[in-house]
Design goal:
The protein has 582 residues and is α/β, with parallel strands linked by helices. It has 18 helices and 28 strands. Bound molecules: ligand MGD (2 copies), iron/sulfur cluster (SF4) and molybdenum atom.
């Protein structure tokens, strides 16, 4: 009998389990999904998708599209082909195409548009990125949401916060900030100061977990000295908080089972790795590692504990942050919308226009397929077999095909077609699925999890050479805005998943910034400019402009420079000026 079990494919912390019931998507009652999905999946069927392939604007059949694809590849030196893959669908079969591209000698990408800087900071400090899963956050007494907006991006965290002490550190008075026991409405890009000041006062108050420090962080005195280089009064004033709030924070967390739940908001900066590492250091001072219900949750590596069946080790790669599209004759874009989601759109557009063949393989119309020569529709997650893992829990979610459809082609079938055309061996689809599934194990409570992932990592110390935490030894003082400038923050919108679904298009400002609701403004940064309609939101700080990720043209304003560590995009490094248009 056909199984009705699947899972949401989207790039989202929660990776919810789904039951497909006569055309309706219903949430798993058990486990973290807790019986509810979010608006993206509740309205999944209402989003218009690309139904037919096209070449140079003309509708063609799928067979013609595949023949065209083969022709284009045959006419291109394989080292002049780039495979640019995004995260529109997070399930594991997406990666099968990597294998074929690597084997024919095409380029793949490396680097990150997402969490790379933070991850680099974690790895420098701890030697690995092992995440605190949702099931452990459930056991905490205190949850610190540090640059994470659960009502928009991880709603299945919310039921776990019930009856817990909640602290929010966010420049925006988010919904969760309004409900929290303590909200620090921090100035953007100043979290490193806050984390270091908290460590310093933890030490001054003699509240560090000394046994933990002696066992796994013996360089702590040097780190304390580093924290002493910060001028307390001036910095507190600058970042928008009081000494009282430092005291309140420590009072709420010391001696409590605490989860510090970080989001990507803290690390969209060139020193994003250091910010994350300073937060980790605070957790070390509090002795939060290796204990039940304690730890730091970030975006774990969703593929932790899973060996990739794709042979891509020898593939040549270019960065996915400042990709030199113009150095390639043929660019194959899969599950991504680089013309909206990569930084510095003007640069991307200019580079991609110098590419002879742009091929887009995806679900929706957007600014990238608008400039593509060949458009190949994909199958939705309901129309193909797949399996997925998560970056916030350890579950492995089997995704069975639910419906037959004439529209689109699956990633496996497209990879198999190319493999056949260019002599690349592929395993059967069932073998790939089995390969992934073999990394899972059924737990005592009946849940299916990735086998080699620990619920409570770092019990025996860190994964560094000597099992000790490696503290920051220096840090960069972040740049400050001029009086005429604003911080540009670009968090996720509740209504869209980056550039999929309902994309928000406003620039949000505090009323005190002096612009009226509905007026048109131009934002200017040293990367470019973009026009928006103003919405007033007094939950923002007066020195911030908020434009959601996925809003059209927001990335005209962002730089394609990399973070110092982690080869990551730094979407919030630019400041903006505002010009009134009408
Ligand atoms: N609805 C929805 N859900 C999503 C997504 C989506 O687009 N829409 N995208 C998915 C993806 S790809 C990802 S990576 C995750 C990311 O999800 P989150 O980690 O929640 O990331 P963001 O929404 O970018 O930022 C979170 C919070 O950081 C705050 N912030 C911004 N700058 C700073 C700062 O300098 N310091 C501090 N302390 N906070 C700051 C923002 O105001 C925001 O409230 O969400 C996933 N889930
Ligand atoms: N300014 C700013 N820019 C940002 C961010 C930010 O916070 N601020 N966030 C960044 C982050 S965290 C991320 S992760 C990136 C995300 O950026 P992208 O990886 O580009 O993700 P999406 O915008 O979700 O676009 C994904 C595309 O995937 C396609 N797709 C969906 N499902 C499938 C499928 O099953 N198969 C195939 N072949 N295609 C499919 C859809 O057509 C969609 O257009 O954006 C980054 N850009
Ligand atoms: S919360 Fe995330 S995983 Fe769950 S249905 Fe929504 S987008 Fe999918
Ligand atoms: Mo992301």
């Amino acid at each position: 009998m056909k199984s009705s079990i699947t899972a949401c494919p989207l790039d989202c912390y929660d990776a919810c389990g789904i039951v497909y019931d006569e055309g309706k998507l219903k949430a798993f009652k058990d486990g973290h999904t807790q019986g509810f999905l979010c608006p993206h999946l509740n309205h999944y069927a209402s989003h218009e998708r690309i139904k037919q392939p096209r070449y140079k604007g003309e509708v063609i059949s799928m067979q013609e599209a595949l023949t065209k694809l083969e022709e284009i590849f045959s006419a291109t030196l394989k080292s002049e082909i780039l495979h640019y893959r995004g995260s529109g669908n997070f399930a594991l079969m997406q990666g099968v195409t990597d294998h074929v591209f690597a084997k024919i000698g095409a380029y793949l990408t490396d680097g990150s548009l997402c969490d790379g800087a933070g991850e680099a900071g974690i790895v420098e400090g701890r030697g690995s990125n092992k995440n605190m899963p949702l099931s452990e956050i459930a056991k905490s007494e205190v949850v610190v949401l540090w640059g994470r907006n659960p009502h928009a991006t991880s709603s299945h965290l919310l039921p776990l916060l019930k009856d817990k002490t909640v602290i929010v550190i966010d420049p925006v008075k988010t919904k969760i900030a309004k409900m929290a026991n303590l909200h620090i409405q921090i100035k953007p890009h100043t979290d490193i100061f806050l984390a270091m000041l908290l460590y310093r006062f933890l030490h001054i108050e003699d509240s560090c977990d000394d046994a933990f420090l002696e066992a796994f962080a013996t360089e702590h005195e040097d780190y304390y000295e580093l924290t002493q280089t910060i001028r307390i009064k001036a910095i507190l004033e600058d970042i928008g908080m009081t000494l009282g709030q430092i005291g309140d924070f420590l009072h709420l967390v010391v001696g409590k089972k605490t989860a510090i739940v970080c989001g990507v908001g803290i690390q969209k900066y060139r020193d994003g790795a250091d910010v994350m590492r300073a937060i980790d250091a605070l957790a070390v001072g509090l002795g939060l590692f290796g204990k039940e219900g304690c730890g730091v949750a970030y975006l774990g590596n969703s593929q932790e504990g899973i060996n990739s069946p794709s042979e891509t080790q020898k593939a040549k790669r270019v960065s996915k942050v400042n990709t030199p599209f113009d150095e390639f004759k043929t660019v194959f874009i899969q599950g991504a919308n680089p013309l909206a989601q990569m930084p510095d759109t003007n640069r991307v557009l200019d580079a991609i226009e110098h590419t002879q063949n742009v091929i887009y393989f995806g679900l929706y119309e957007n600014e990238t397929n608008a400039i593509a020569d060949l458009v190949i529709p994909a199958k939705t997650f309901l129309e193909k077999e797949d399996i997925r893992t998560s970056y916030s829990h350890n579950g492995m979610m089997v995704m069975h095909k639910q419906v037959e459809s004439d529209i689109g082609i699956s990633e496996y079938d497209l990879a198999a077609y190319l493999g056949n055309a260019f002599d690349v061996q592929l395993k059967s689809e069932a073998e790939y699925l089995e390969h992934f599934k073999n990394h899972g194990v059924v737990k005592i409570d009946g849940s299916f999890e990735v086998e080699n992932r620990e619920a409570v990592p770092y019990k025996e110390g860190f994964d560094t050479d000597d099992n000790e935490f490696v503290f920051l030894e220096e840090f960069e003082v972040p740049q400050k805005v001029d009086e005429e400038e604003f911080y540009l923050i670009t968090p996720k919108a509740a209504s869209s998943l980056n550039s999929q679904f309902h994309r928000d298009s406003y620039a949000y400002l505090h009323a005190a910034a002096g612009f009226s609701e509905g007026s048109r403004i131009k934002l200017l940064s040293n990367s470019g400019e973009a026009e928006f309609v103003v919405k007033i939101n007094n939950d923002l700080r007066e020195d911030c402009v908020l434009v959601h990720s996925g809003a059209k043209e927001v990335n005209n304003l962002t730089t394609s420079k990399h973070s110092y560590e982690g080869k990551s995009a730094i979407f919030q490094e630019n400041f903006v000026r505002i010009l009134k248009i009408d």
